[in-house]
Amino acid sequence: MELMAVALTGGASVGAAARTVSSTLPEPLAGQLRAVADDLRRGEDTDEAWRAAGAHWAPARRCLDLAQSSGVPPAEALVRAAQDVRRDAVADVEVAAARLGVRLVLPLGLAYLPAFVLTTIVPVVLALTGELSW
Questions:
Q1: Residue 23 and residue 30 in contact, taking contact as beta carbons nearer than 8 Å
Q2: Cβ(53)–Cβ(33) below 8 Å
Q3: Per-position b or e across 71-92, b if 16+ CB within 10 A of its CB
Q4: So what's the pLDDT on residue 133?
């Protein structure tokens, strides 16, 4: 989305920006954006062109729709949307890391607790019972 914003700031149309940016992206994303650029170049409806792009491009579509309906340049909205997507991705990673920490406690507890009991508590109890017997 930030690359789209740069291309739009440079004066490119949405279709030309989508075509240019699609040449720099990895393949599932590049194909989706290339399809949007082709649809826009053929003169199809903007909503239909972006609807075929998939869920990954929904924030860009919303930004462009909002900018078109309000008559403002879409570049700033695309940059902010990219920041929001990045922040959400980081939050998802942090949540996954927290879940991993919780999920690791049970196996570690099941492995270390018996080892602790067998190496420390059982010898102490055996030593004390050996000393207490007359």
A1: yes
A2: yes
A3: eeebbebbbebbeebeeeeeee
A4: 63
